[in-house]
Specification:
The complex is a heterodimer of chains A (about 230) and B (about 80). With about 230 residues, chain A is of the alpha+beta class. Chain A has an eight-stranded antiparallel β-sheet with strand order 2-1-8-7-6-5-4-3. Chain A is globular, with a radius of gyration of 21 Å. The mean pLDDT of chain A is about 95. Chain B is elongated. Classes of the chains: A alpha+beta (about 230), B mainly alpha (about 80). Chains A and B meet through α1, α3, β1, β2 and β6 of A and α2 and α3 of B.
């Protein structure tokens, strides 16, 4: 079919093949979520995978399934993560609204397939404590530690987890140069399309939040971008 | 009677721990991270010069005088549906 399509394409004149206007001019008029990519903010890639457990069939794709999403932060939000007033050894909480967004939108079980966010009122706990462990040449080395408890009573699902990680914030360039946060916990329940029909008991799951690259595929908007309220 | 009871007491905590999630801390951080992160083989698809949006593909196709191959299906690209 592809070969036939290409043959037909080659039979057409250039006028027939191409649009009679410049499609680039239309590009800014399309209000895609990707237009809101936070160039000056923070973009984290969120990888998710089941953690090791017994009883999984190694030949089943679902045993090693992996998925990913992106978490976006505006420049203002990014700046709020590292308060300039902190000194070495001091600790502070990452802003509550940001941790809650990371939890409700990015700690949902999407390992095997598309899922739904956790409701805002389903956050029983979501705290991430940051500590400035070292400050050298304008680079703030930050240690992160926290806990999360999510509930979705309507779907009888939940997640209890712990978080730990490191980040380096360049105070001269006002950007994160390193960011790695691991979330490990137990999830249970399922959503309509996340392929947990026969696996909805309590089981370990993990997430890693890390700096996204500037690869074109890393500019895709968060799966639940609508819940960000940015447009 | 005492032996099966003793065996059950030994086995029960093991079964309980089978599905229990490990707490992440400084010691377990790297091991858990490496388990969750995708392998090089899982990232092979990135070698394809994907466009983020359909219309960007149209723009590039127009410039290169090439057709667009569109594979469409329901669901978010990160949803595996």
């Amino acid at each position: 079919m592809l070969r036939e399509a290409l043959e037909r394409w080659n039979e057409m004149s250039k006028e027939e093949r191409l649009l009679d206007y410049d499609p680039e001019e239309v590009l800014p008029q399309i209000n895609r979520a990707e237009n809101h990519y936070p160039e000056d903010g923070l973009v984290l890639r969120v990888n998710s995978r089941d953690l090791p457990r017994t009883g999984l069939d190694p030949t089943d794709w679902r045993s090693t399934a992996w998925n990913f999403d992106y978490a976006w932060f505006t420049q203002e939000e990014m700046l709020s993560i590292f308060p300039r007033t902190v000194r070495r050894g001091q600790s502070w909480e990452m802003p509550e609204n940001l941790v809650q967004r990371m939890a409700t939108l990015h700690m949902a079980d999407n390992v095997r397939g598309q899922t739904n966010r956790y409701p805002d009122d389903g956050v029983e706990e979501a705290k991430l404590e940051c500590t400035l462990v070292r400050m050298r040449r304008g680079l703030a080395h930050i240690e992160m530690e926290g806990t999360v408890k999510l509930r979705d009573e309507g779907r009888n699902r939940g997640f209890d987890g712990t978080m730990y990680g490191f980040a380096v914030y360049d105070t001269n360039a006002d950007r994160f140069t390193e960011f790695e946060l691991v979330v490990s916990g137990e999830r249970w329940g399922r959503t309509r399309f996340n392929a947990r029909e026969d696996d909805d008991g309590r089981a370990p799951i993990g997430f890693v939040f890390s700096l996204a690259s500037d690869h074109p595929t890393e500019r895709v908007a968060p799966a639940m971008f609508g819940a960000y309220g940015w447009r | 009677m005492r032996r099966p009871l003793l065996l059950a007491l030994l086995v029960l905590p093991l079964l309980a721990s089978v599905h229990q999630a490990e707490e992440v801390d400084k010691r377990s951080f790297h091991r858990l991270r490496d388990h969750i992160m995708p392998s090089a083989a899982e990232e092979e698809w990135r070698k394809i010069p994907w466009r983020t949006t359909y219309w960007q593909g149209v723009v590039d196709a127009q410039k290169a005088d090439k057709p667009v191959f569109l594979f469409a299906m329901n669901g978010h690209p990160f949803g595996c549906t």
